[in-house]
């Protein structure tokens, strides 16, 4: 009698949580995309994907392969190491080190992933006049300093 075995699939099952490293790399893709003012749709077009696939990469639901990561680094204008390092180029709180918390906790605590932040960035860059943008920036800094007890 021949017993047929189905090979065990490596990786994770659909019900498993994303790997924290995949979540971190995806969050860096999103951070850089937002810094450049690109929509998920525009980034997807640049690398031949749908915006839904970009969303899955950014959430860490889908892993980004080596060739795709290289392509993303070229389109986003950063070295591949940008997606792994811990330094935050926009002075936001750093991504948690060691990935001790669950991926969802990291997702929820990252202000760059909040809808409010994304809408604020989009609105800011919709202002065509650089001088007006600068005044808004200065106002935001002054308000932040005054609520922290500092003087602007």
Description:
The structure is a single chain. This protein has helices at residues 20-35, 40-47, 51-59, 66-76, 103-109, 115-126, 130-147. The protein is mostly helical. It has two domains: 17-86 and 101-112, 434 Repressor (Amino-terminal Domain), CATH 1.10.260; 114-152, no CATH class. α1 packs across α3. The longest helix has 18 residues, at 130-147.
Number of strands: 0
Distance separating the two termini:
82 Å
Number of domains: 2
Question: Tell me, what is the CATH class of the largest domain?
Answer: Mainly Alpha
Number of helices: 7
* CATH-level-4 superfamily name of the largest domain: lambda repressor-like DNA-binding domains
Give the topology string: H per helix, E per strand.
Answer: HHHHHHH
The major pleated sheet works out as: none
Q: Note the overall shape.
A: globular
Structural class: mainly alpha
Give the secondary structure arrangement, pairings included:
Layout lengths: L19 H16 L4 H8 L3 H9 L6 H11 L26 H7 L5 H12 L3 H18 L5
Helix pairs in contact: 1-3, 2-3
What's this entry about, in short?
This protein has 152 residues and is mainly α. The chain is built from seven helices and no strands.
Attribute tags:
434 Repressor (Amino-terminal Domain), 152 residues, mainly alpha
């Amino acid at each position: 009698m021949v017993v047929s075995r189905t090979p065990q699939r490596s990786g994770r099952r659909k019900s498993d949580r994303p790997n924290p490293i995949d979540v971190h790399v995806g969050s860096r893709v999103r951070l850089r995309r937002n810094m450049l003012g690109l929509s998920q749709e525009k980034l997807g077009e640049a690398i031949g994907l749908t915006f839904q696939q970009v969303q899955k990469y950014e959430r860490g639901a889908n892993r980004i392969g080596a060739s795709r990561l290289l392509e993303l680094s070229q389109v986003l204008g950063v070295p591949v190491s940008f997606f792994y390092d811990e330094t935050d180029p926009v002075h936001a709180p750093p991504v948690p080190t060691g990935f001790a918390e669950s991926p969802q906790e990291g997702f929820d605590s990252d202000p760059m992933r909040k809808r409010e932040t994304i809408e604020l960035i989009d609105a800011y860059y919709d202002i065509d006049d650089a001088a007006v943008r600068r005044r808004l920036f200065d106002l935001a800094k002054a308000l932040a300093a005054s609520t922290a007890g500092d003087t602007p």
